[in-house]
Design goal:
Blueprint (H helix, E strand, L loop, with lengths): L1 H33 L5 H11 L4 H24 L7 H39 L2 H7 L4 H38 L5 H11 L2 H27 L4 H34 L2
Helix pairs in contact: 1-6, 2-6, 3-4, 3-6, 4-6, 4-7, 4-8, 4-9, 6-7, 6-8, 8-9
Length: 260
């Protein structure tokens, strides 16, 4: 019985140690992000890379999710004569849940892994050590701009995903299911509230922080050459995706409890 218990103990202690290291790292990055000096050029460059370059993949994912959602809601509603609620449920599901979640998951794969690979390559080629030698903080020059850019661009991407997702549902409903376009759009606008949009934007800010910090953290810990860089990219993507889904549930539960 000793060996299995020792194994469980080592795994548990290792898990808590990793959580502690991640928390300390995240705290240092956040402090660097809210205190001067800021590198405006690097922040703008990261905003373009994280936000603008991610728009096509986010838009494609959103339009197909919106279209599939409308089809499935219509199929389920038709069993109870409730087909008229398709626009209401589509806009509610996308604005509160799917817009932010799909955007977070897509950027976990594209952005978080990319950040980890880029920083990991800098780590194994000793570029980060060179920065430290020149008294340039890696937290301030490398990590904080990526965090600020993710926090700023994720809400914009989620807003775009919400609009494109709703339009995907509209396209399928009007041209595939026979809905009247004017009635569909009126029901959509009348049903969605500011609270629904606010919920998605709050999630977007948190997801942006998760994506940036996980990418920076795994890249900073990269080692063992190309193999280590690949492993860092994989771990950052998986970790960011799992945390996005976990915190989505936590936030959804919290918003339901407070009536938001």
């Amino acid at each position: 019985m000793a060996n299995p218990l020792q194994l469980v103990g080592r795994i548990t202690l290792g898990l808590f140690a990793e959580i502690g290291r991640l928390a300390v790292f995240a705290g240092r990055v956040k402090i660097a992000a809210v205190t001067p000096r800021w590198y405006g050029g690097e922040i703008l460059r990261q905003m373009v890379r994280i936000g603008f370059y991610s728009l096509p993949v986010v838009g494609l994912a959103a339009v197909f999710i919106g279209a599939a959602l409308a089809l499935n809601i219509y199929e389920g509603g038709s069993r109870y004569g409730a087909e008229q609620f398709v626009p209401n449920i589509v806009v509610l599901g996308i604005s509160r849940e799917l817009g932010a979640t799909i955007t977070g998951l897509m950027l976990a794969g594209r952005v978080s892994a990319g950040i980890a690979a880029e920083i990991g390559a800098m780590r194994v080629t000793e570029q980060i050590d060179a920065l430290e030698t020149l008294s340039a903080s890696r937290y301030r020059y490398l990590y904080a701009p990526r965090l600020i850019a993710a926090l700023a661009t994720l809400p914009l991407l989620v807003m775009a995903a919400n609009i494109i997702g709703v339009m995907g549902g509209w396209l399928v409903s009007v041209y595939g299911l026979g809905f009247d376009s004017t009635v569909y759009l009126r029901n959509t606008v009348d049903f969605v509230t500011r609270d629904d949009i606010l919920v998605g934007l709050i999630k977007a800010v948190l997801f942006g922080g998760i994506i940036a910090i996980m990418g920076c953290y795994q890249g900073d810990r990269s080692q063992a050459g190309a193999t280590g860089v690949g492993r860092a990219a994989t771990l950052s993507m998986v970790g960011a995706a799992v945390l996005v889904l976990a915190f989505n549930y936590v936030l959804s539960t919290l918003f339901v409890e407070i009536g938001l």
